Structure formats: C-alpha cells, structure tokens
C-alpha cells in the first residue's frame, strides 16, 4: 500500500492533522487512521529501500596526447585530452589497451578526410568512432585544444561527449 507524500506531509508536526501529544488524543479514531497509513507505508517498503544503497562504481581512464601536429585548415598543433568511461561491471581482461587507442586517434586525425569540417565536427566524429570501435565503453569525452598560430593568435578548445 503506497501512501502519497502529501498525506505523510500532513502528518508532520504543526500541520492540522498532526498527532497531538495530549493523553486524550492517542485514542482518537483519526490518530488510529494516521497510524495505519504510516504503518502501511513502512510495511510496503522493500528491505532494500530501508537500507543504504550499494555504491555505484564508475571506472574511467583519462589520457592526453600533447603537441600533436595537425594539418587541418592549415598546419596546427593540438592537444587531445580524452576520457573513456567503461561499461558498468567491465572485467579487467576487457579493458582496452590505451596505447592502441592513442595510435588509433593519431591515425584518425592524420587521415581525416574532410579538411573543411569545423573542429567541433572532427571531434564529434572522433568520439563516435571510438565508441563504435570499443563496445566496452559507456562514454567517451574528448577535448581538442588548438594552440595559437600566426594567423589565429588565440587558443581554442572543442569539447565533445558521446555515450551509449
């Protein structure tokens, strides 16, 4: 039997329906009904709801590729920071080799086909490609940081997160 929160809220001290502490009020029919409502609500709760929840563990690995030459809309130098969040309960044997992923990221960026794509599009496509290649990942977040150049004298960063 579930009890609506507004009903239980009406039983709070100070509300017009709260139990009175006088000896005469303990035997009133209204207080008996209140008792039944609260007792029924507690009985309907599962034992798991009455105990502390198990902690949820999120496993992830963050890595950086620093100072990577990148010929996209002109020669640039970039940093690639990525975070891979593993699927819940991943076994140690299923954790991908980060060195392989770093080589794949470098190769992907070096051979990216459309030099006219904005950096945000490149980043989105990279995130989606990593997720496609590694089904044991629950999410991938990539930041591509572009160093200032002579023609663009400020740094910029593209942020992208893709998840299942």
- What fraction of the residues are assigned to beta strands by DSSP? 25-35%
Q: Main β-sheet: number of strands, strand sense, barrel status?
A: 4 strands, antiparallel
Query: Considering DSSP H and I runs of 4 or more, what fraction of the residues is helical?
Result: 25-40%
Q: Looking at the structure, what is the overall shape?
A: elongated
User: Total strand count, please?
Assistant: 4
Output the number of helix runs: 5
- Average pLDDT, rounded to a whole number, is 84
Under the CATH scheme, which class of the largest domain? Alpha Beta
Counting structural domains, the number is: 2
- What spatial order of strands do you see in the largest sheet? 1-2-3-4
Can you put this structure into words, describing what you see?
By secondary structure, the protein is an alpha+beta fold. The protein has 2 domains: 5-50, no CATH class; 60-163, GTP Cyclohydrolase I, domain 2 (2-Layer Sandwich), CATH 3.30.1130. Helix content is 32%, strand content 26%. It has helices at residues 5-9, 29-44, 47-50, 98-110, 119-133, and strands spanning 60-71, 75-86, 137-146, 156-163. It has a 4-stranded antiparallel β-sheet with strand order 1-2-3-4, covered by helices on one side. A hairpin with a 3-residue loop joins strand 1 and strand 2. It is elongated.
């Amino acid at each position: 039997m579930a009890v609506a929160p507004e009903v239980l809220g009406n039983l709070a001290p100070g509300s017009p329906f709260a139990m009175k502490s006088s000896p005469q009020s303990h035997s009133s029919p209204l207080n008996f009904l209140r008792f039944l409502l609260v007792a029924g609500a507690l009985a309907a709760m599962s034992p798991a709801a009455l105990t502390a929840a198990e902690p949820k563990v999120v496993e992830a690995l963050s890595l950086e590729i620093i100072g990577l030459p990148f010929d996209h809309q002109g020669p640039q130098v970039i940093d690639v920071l990525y975070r891979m969040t593993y699927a819940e309960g991943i076994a140690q044997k299923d954790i991908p080799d980060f060195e392989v992923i770093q080589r794949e990221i470098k190769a992907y960026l070096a051979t990216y086909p459309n030099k006219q794509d904005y950096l945000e599009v490149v980043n989105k496509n990279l995130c989606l490609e990593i997720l496609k290649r590694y089904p044991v990942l629950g999410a991938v977040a990539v930041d591509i940081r572009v160093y200032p150049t002579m023609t663009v004298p400020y740094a910029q960063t593209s942020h992208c997160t893709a998840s299942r």
